[in-house]
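Quick one: structure tokens for this chain, please?
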Amino acid sequence: MLLDNQEEQGTRAGSGAAMVGGTGFLRHHGPVAASPISASPREHPLEDRLWFRRFFYLLAAVTAVRLVYAAVFPLDLAPDESYYWDWGRRPDWGYFSKPPMVGWLMGLAGWLGGDTQFGLKIFPVLLTSVGLTFVFLLGRAMYGVRSGFWAALVLLATPANAALSTFFTIDPPLFAAWSASLFFAWQWWTRPSSIGAAGAALVVALGCGFLTKQVQLVFPLVLVVFATIHRRHLRAGDGTRLAAMIAVSLAFLTPPLWWNWKHGWITFRHTADELEGRAWELRRSLKFLGEFIGGQAGLSGGITWLLLVAALFLAVRRWRTGETRERFLLLFSAPGLAAFLGLSLFQRVEQNWPLVFYVSAAVLLAGTAMGQVQAPRWLRPWMTAGVGTGAVLGMALMILPFVLPSTPMAGTKGDPTTRLRGWRDLAAAVERHRQELEKPTQTFLLAADDRYVASALAFYLPDRPRTYTWERQGFPESQYGIWGRPSVAAGTDALVLVRNPMASNILEIQSCFESWQRRGEIQVLVGAAEARNRTYSVFLGRGYRGFEPAKVP
């Protein structure tokens, strides 16, 4: 291995890892000259093939098990899943809170899977496996096949990865896009004399990430910082090529930017609202900080999280004498994690927000534990313990949906599956009300104050109807607010569900109908704790007048 202070003695020829070329990504090249890019260790061919097979056998087995799990998953879709599924029924260049990729993928999954729950659940399984594959390839390119195996295993054996493969939110496609971006960025960096296949693949990976979640925009910034720090290793024209690749990848954002321009930059406003912290207060800040650290440690398997932090700390200490690959991995992990740690002092940080910054940290941990980076000897056995602990916790998390609903804990604040229950039952109860109406299929559905009720009814009702919410005009609070209030023919009837009968919009809704009749209540049982059960008031509005409320004498 070449330390950074030795790098000027070499030439930039690339690493001994798999490179982009006519032979493909998955094949080692022959010997290379000493280079400023720290060369990955040369493995014995038999050992190389052994670890290679181990990874893909493991990945195939885990993917198969997860597909079976998706088929027998006993609970309902998470609220965000049905919400994004409804996005997919109306493909667009952008959506209220996110770029369009998750909506597009949901539309594809619904079309391929017949709008079934299993059809949707296939996608997070496959996307997570794609992400793990790129983690393996990145670890292999930097530290060798064995380190690549362990890098993927470190992430695979965590509760976070188990959840990632179970729920079709924005995180599975983001994980795949970010991991691919890391791999192709390193591939291009080791051979930057032309844009080539790695550069083109990096453009596509970055573009897909930009269309998935806003945090992907951090990637080119970090890449520019990395290139600036190591600018003496760039050849003539490399900086221009890097700028061109980033510019082309940013062009992927043209459609959602155009969409946001037409909708008052709503996605930007929503993102700013999400990051708007309150004034600092010690007690609240300590609470948020503790929740964030505890959640991150729990989702990472406890021991594994401590080891990831230790690997990053060791890399920070070696910054001046460390290798280029260590700096690459460190820059794509530590600053992002530190930023969210700091943000947690001012507001509650969602546990999935820093997800992508653990990818490069896992590769760094694997390389360090496998002896490719100078580190304490105790790190490797503790990593094995961390993987075992994380795997047990991950399997326990996957068993919970089968066990927890039948225990006294069901429906309590300590029950993480509460939000996954009751939606199918709610739809069944609403369908019974619909069948009692004179014109059930011609009566539109209005979930007055809850977008998740609207999306759950849209998914679980047998005819998959279009559903509506009632938000202030000009002040959308969800994608349903973007789509607008009901645009149906005058005189149409509506079945209205209200979670909060005292909501301020109820009188306005009522005034938009010729008559208003209360039809009873629906109580959805989600567990033994009655306080957690959901109660909905059901109304029938006859003769819809349109958006403008009628004048009340």
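The first helix runs from residue 45 to 72.
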